[in-house]
Amino acid sequence: xxxxxxxxxxxxxxxxxxxxxxxxxxxxxxxxxxxxxxxxxxxxxxxxxxxxxxxxxxxxxxxxxxxxxxxxxxxxxxxxxxxxxxxxxxxxxxxxxxxxxxxxxxxxxxxxxxxxxxxxxxxxxxxxxxxxxxxxxxxxxxxxxxxxxxxxxxxxxxxxxxxxxxxxxxxxxxxxxxxxxxxxxxxxxxxxxxxxxxxxxxxxxxxxxxxxxxxxxxxxxxxxxxxxxxxxxxxxxxxxxxxxxxxxxxxxxxxxxxxxxxxxxxxxxxxxxxxxxxxxxxxxxxxxxxxxxxxxxxxxxxxxxxxxxxxxxxxxxxxxxxxxxxxxxxxxxxxxxxxxxxxxxxxxxxxxxxxxxxxxxxxxxxxxxxxxxxxxxxxxxxxxxxxxxxxxxxxxxxxxx
Length: 401
Ligand SMILES: [Fe+2]
Description:
- The protein is of the alpha+beta class.
- Helices cover 21% and strands 27% of the residues.
- The protein has a six-stranded mixed sheet with strand order 7-8-19-11-22-9.
- Fe (ii) ion binds next to loops.
């Protein structure tokens, strides 16, 4: 009898890297052995929840419709075997239901053997700068001529997305220099996050500026919009013109600086995730204020974001005893931000697009001489989720090919 492999509870493709060879079970646990010798254990309740049949997952959306708490009892295992297609078949009691599991999907979700089941697709790699260092640079000249979601588009985007996920930064070169073309370029990755500065914003010296960015003065290392509860995860800066003297771009990996601080001055490092600073952008027509730590760690102690922008800090409103330690830690960090070995420096060329993680990287620029020529960047924001989703789609497309 020849039977097809079952569906998976998602839209992805899961190649079979090893076959299921043997299966054994207890009422609550299935243990399988794969053709390469690996052994994996799956809880019965985990399998029941992750079945792909129409009582568990809506076939139209592949979203779960099963509510485990509505089952007649704990989903115990009455039988388990490998069928002719190589799928795992499990009989669940007391439902009296046989469900089948795709071996490629099971193997890819083998939480029993995964070192870090939540590991990101591209590991985060903190980097130092120094002279001669620059961003990963890729030729993207044909990007807008490719079909959306085509192999040609992926060939340009995949390495770019990898650099952004791993290093927080990439530079695409050879893109058009027409004003507003950034919108079509950004859309190849995902939707733009509009702000009070617009869908796209122009970085050039302008009269009556509502930000230091719109002058020709130097900007210290900073992230954009730390004044928001959720600061944008990504920023894109697209160079349309650059003929001024000065205005060199400077970028630092905020995670590398934070890790160096953790090593060199643990006390200062412990202070910064604790103290909530005030970030304020009190312009003539808007008034954004948010309180947040300068360094945020996730539940596992890994760096999640930095929120550094000295010109957007408002008055500290911390506990009385925290004020001096807070400023001491702040100044320790500020001194490190000036160390040249953390920074890379480069000059924008028209057609360059720099994409960077705005909750991780700090960007700065030297002052430029406004009358020496024109410097015009257009920028936009996006979320980290868009890069991650786009990268997963590229991987999915490759698996399905
Ligand atoms: Fe900025």
